[in-house]
Design brief:
Number of strands: 13
Oligomer: single chain
Strand order of the largest sheet: 7-11-10-9-8
CATH superfamily of one domain: Homeodomain-like
CATH class of one domain: Mainly Alpha
Strand content: 5-15%
Number of helices: 22
Bound molecules: zinc ion
């Protein structure tokens, strides 16, 4: 959505058809009712296939979910209605359209790209993006995250996006066609419009700021795109009285898939909160944030009645807002396919009671991958509380004071040459942090997921002081690898001890084979039940 470092291209004309290259797909094209074309908004002819564009979507199942307004399907598909030209979430309170008028899309951008307008009642821009619903296509999830953060936009080459993901451009385009139903360019355009719609509807931000925050190069382009999509000027979409957070923060809802274990996530983050940087108070997670030269703070709590979280965001540069929201989504693991994960893990006898006790348990992510990786090193061989103290000392010694009074955790440039033995780190651990900082300072994408899990872990483990445990833990939390699994972890081994004898890591790894591709979630269940949390077995192990 963002458009850093260059003017935005004007939104290109919408595509009349989602680009689908699925085998056996017959795109019988029909003309939507004339009145759609002659609407005030004068959209292009919304020509759509009569079949569900994504072969993975089962028409019958989608329609059933739609008729029952089944919340479990929210974010999994979108219903476009031929007679109105509008697309909806499965939970839309509006009257259920007739089956023959419905076309189902796997993503909001796909429906948008096919020429449909987001519904103003169910607000598709608020639906969670279900990760993992797309099977093992982790590459797609990562690409969507980069686009949502504004790290890639359509002014750049698709090849540039593919390169960051470690795949070829053609392969990426194929993956998008199959799993998203729209090419990356259309996704970037749709994301911008949908994010702008949220800011207009949910906040009191001035329109010029909304345009900037959602990545439009100019207010005129923003106005044009909003008119084209919603058939009215942006101010016609504003809701009175929403988005007023105390102290002038931007208040946004963060939707999540259901179920969601907020209490467990909050407890995990609270136990590890870095003094001065983060804190958990009164059921709220707060932290200082710094990214791309912007500084500020975020606070997140559960909404009364559940269903979503509420974020209050202060940021010195509004253009960083999409990235802030994207980072929060990953930190809080909002898009996990919780039902699929729970159902899969519950098939294991030992895990079933844990899943039943904490349905929707998430893997806490990281606000900043570097900060998390430093934390992982500090956590080697010491208690959670001791690691927290060390992290707090590093923040106090090397971090910068943010406007709100909190500390921003120091970046890699700061820590690459810092004398960390002075704050109580052993020489080896100080060297490990320095080496990690040097690697990230020299290569900004060092802590981005690249290749598969094994490649990622091997790359991390090349650094001094980072063994397999640390690498797997970093992969799990900072790189969002749902299948990462620190098999040498003491807490995990303890969970499977029989008669006081712990299994070997190899034995545990064999057992964990059945939990793929969600081993990280199994680890979280075991740690949460054990209450000891992650614990590396030995130095660098
Ligand atoms: Zn709707």
């Amino acid at each position: 959505m963002g458009n850093r470092g260059g003017p935005a291209a004007p939104p290109r004309p919408l595509r009349p058809l989602p680009r689908i290259s699925a085998p056996g797909f017959t795109s019988r094209v029909i003309q939507v009712r004339k009145r759609l074309a002659t609407r005030r908004t004068r959209r292009h002819d919304a020509r759509v296939p009569t079949r569900t564009p994504d072969p993975a979507l089962d028409r019958e199942a989608c329609y059933r979910a739609l008729r029952t307004r089944d919340a479990r399907f929210d974010g999994r598909f979108y219903t476009a209605v031929l007679s109105t030209g509008i697309f909806c979430r499965p939970v839309c309170p509006a009257r259920t359209p007739r089956a023959e008028h419905c076309v189902f899309f796997p993503s909001a951008p796909a429906a948008h790209a096919a020429g449909f307008r987001p519904c103003l009642r169910c607000r598709p821009e608020l639906a969670p993006g279900v990760a993992g619903w797309r099977g093992t296509a982790n590459t797609v999830s990562r690409a969507l995250a980069l686009i949502a953060d504004g790290a890639w936009n359509e002014d750049q080459d698709v090849e540039a996006l593919a390169e960051r993901l470690g795949v070829g451009g053609r392969h990426l385009r194929r993956l998008f066609a199959r799993h998203v139903g729209a090419p990356p360019v259309a996704v970037a355009q749709a994301q911008r419009v949908l994010f702008a719609k949220r800011l207009v509807a949910e906040t009191a931000m001035p329109m010029a700021e909304v345009a900037l925050a959602s990545g439009f190069g100019s207010v005129r382009r923003f106005n044009d795109a909003m008119r084209r999509t919603f058939g009215r000027p942006p101010r016609g979409l504003r809701r009175a009285g929403e988005g007023e957070a105390p102290g002038g923060a931007i208040a946004l809802r963060l939707a999540h898939t259901a179920p969601y274990q907020w209490a467990s996530l909050l407890a995990f983050l609270g136990a590890r909160a870095i003094p001065g940087v983060e804190q958990v108070v009164d059921g709220e997670y707060r932290r200082t944030v710094a990214l791309d030269g912007a500084v500020g703070s975020v606070a997140v709590r559960a909404a009364p009645g559940g269903g979503h979280l509420l974020a209050a965001i202060r940021i010195s540069r509004v253009a960083a807002l999409p990235a802030v929201v994207g980072r929060l989504r990953r930190l809080l693991d909002l898009d996990a396919d919780a039902q699929a994960i729970d159902a899969h893990l519950a098939r294991d006898r030992s895990l079933a009671p844990l899943v039943a006790a904490r349905p929707g348990l998430r893997v806490p992510g990281a606000w900043d991958p570097f900060e998390l990786a430093v934390r992982a090193i500090l956590g080697q061989q010491v208690s959670v509380a001791a690691a927290r103290t060390l992290a707090g000392r590093i923040a106090a010694a090397c971090g910068e004071r943010a406007p709100g009074g909190g500390l921003a955790f120091p970046g890699p440039e700061r820590l690459a040459g810092a004398r960390l033995d002075r704050v109580g780190l052993t020489r080896a651990r100080a060297a490990a942090v320095n080496a990690l900082a040097g690697a990230v300072a020299g290569d900004a994408s060092f802590l981005q997921p690249r290749g598969d899990l094994e490649e990622t872990v091997a790359r991390l483990a090349e650094l001094p002081g980072i063994g397999r445990w640390t690498a797997q833990y970093v992969a799990m939390r900072a790189l969002r690898e749902p299948d990462a699994f620190p098999d040498s972890d003491l807490g995990l081994l303890r969970a499977f001890a029989r008669g006081g004898i712990r299994p070997s890591p190899a034995t545990l790894a064999r057992r964990a084979e059945a939990w793929r591709p969600w081993r990280a979630y199994a680890a979280m269940h075991l740690w949460t039940a054990d209450a000891g949390g992650p614990a590396p077995r030995r130095k660098g192990a």
